[in-house]
Amino acid sequence: MFVTPFEEWASNTAKGSPRDPSQFQNEIKSIKIVGNMALAETELFWPGIYYYDFLTLIKVEGKWKIVHKSWWEKKLP
User: Fold this and answer.
1) How many Å apart are CA 2 and CA 75, to the nearest integer?
2) Are the C-beta atoms of 66 and 55 separated by less than 8 Å?
3) pTM (predicted TM-score)
4) φ, ψ of residue 65 in degrees (nearest 5)
5) In angstroms, what is the C-alpha Rg of the chain?
6) Across the strands, what pairs with 58?
7) SS3 letters for the chain?
8) Block means of pLDDT (10 residues each) for the chain, length 77 residues?
9) What are the C-alpha distances in Å from 52 to residues 14, 16, 49, 59, 60?
10) Is 73 within 8 Å of 58 (Cβ atoms)?
């Protein structure tokens, strides 16, 4: 387990060539909303890797913002 500051995560995510959306399969498995907070589970199949995410969101000034992201990843053959 490790903690990545947002700025580091965002700069690493932005590197590289634009991705081809046809190569990715992303699915929202569930969303639970209570007041101005929410928990979302997502399942992502990308070329060579599988991600399962838990995202915590807070509604700020009418817009949902991700405030925490935890994930598990598995390399695919």
Assistant:
1) 18
2) yes
3) 0.73
4) -125, 135
5) 14
6) 37, 65
7) CCCCCHHHHHHHHCCCCCCCHHHCEEEEEEEEEECCEEEEEEEEEECCEEEEEEEEEEEECCEEEEEEEEEEEEECC
8) 78 74 90 98 90 95 93 87
9) 20, 22, 10, 23, 25
10) no
